[in-house]
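Risk mitigation, structural track. In case the binding assays with zinc ion fail to produce interpretable data, a predicted complex structure has been prepared as a fallback.
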Amino acid sequence: MDVRVGFHVSIAGGISNSVNNAKKLGCTAFQIFSRNPRGWAAKPLLREEVDSFKNRLCESGIEKTAVVVHMPYLPNLSGPPGELYERSVKTLIEEMQRCNLLGISYLVIHLGSHMGGGSNSGIDQLVNALTVASAGSKSENKVIVLLENNVGQKNSVGGTLEELRLILDRLDSSKQFGVCIDTCHLFASGYDLRTKEDVNIIFEKIKAIVGMKELKIVHLNDSKGGLGSNLDRHEHIGLGSIGVEGLTTFLNHRAIQALPIIMETPIDTTRGDEQNLRVVLDMIKK
Ligand SMILES: [Zn+2]
Ligand SMILES: [Zn+2]
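Fallback model:
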């Protein structure tokens, strides 16, 4: 199978515009927000807009299974009980419904912060949120929720591969959940990726601890912060602290060959998306 690779693209002017944005860049995979990621409110998705998205996607030649929605930033699914938590669970349910409506297969979520309550209580809250949200009718609910690893900042839940496994083990319907691995977050949380050997070790760890079959999507980003810096600052591919050797090895590893690869790289005077895509396509061994 040919590699499927692309970016997080804008939905400005309507969600169906994302398909054109992805296509224009030459993406064969892409990620979107289904709403403004920095607010709580979401306008309902109108029938026309949903149809237009589906039609454009169909015409684009981009596979349905290479499209990903990312949850907005405000929800905290691992927080203590209360209004913020209730709102977060409600948002998760809405996002799952929006994915189902749009025919999108994957929803990537951040696992949030226990806010000082300890990782056990954070995981309890998260497992509860995911269980409640996925409780709806299975036939209607086709979206797979992907837990994204994070940079291991203070109070965060899911900062290690072991914790991701622990959370998956506590979720009932294992088929509805999986994992999205972000290379910048791996590196910033302390997993070295700079050399071939480092990358091979990481894949052995993912295989042994999480299990390869859980891995559905890769977020390919270089890191502005150093190893174990806990900084969530993405860098252009090959220009950050991970660098060319590590990212080339990662990209060409047979374990991820069939997976959609999404970049969440900056757009600035150094490079835009076109340049990062060219770099990645050049890194992939023909
Ligand atoms: Zn990411
Ligand atoms: Zn990030």
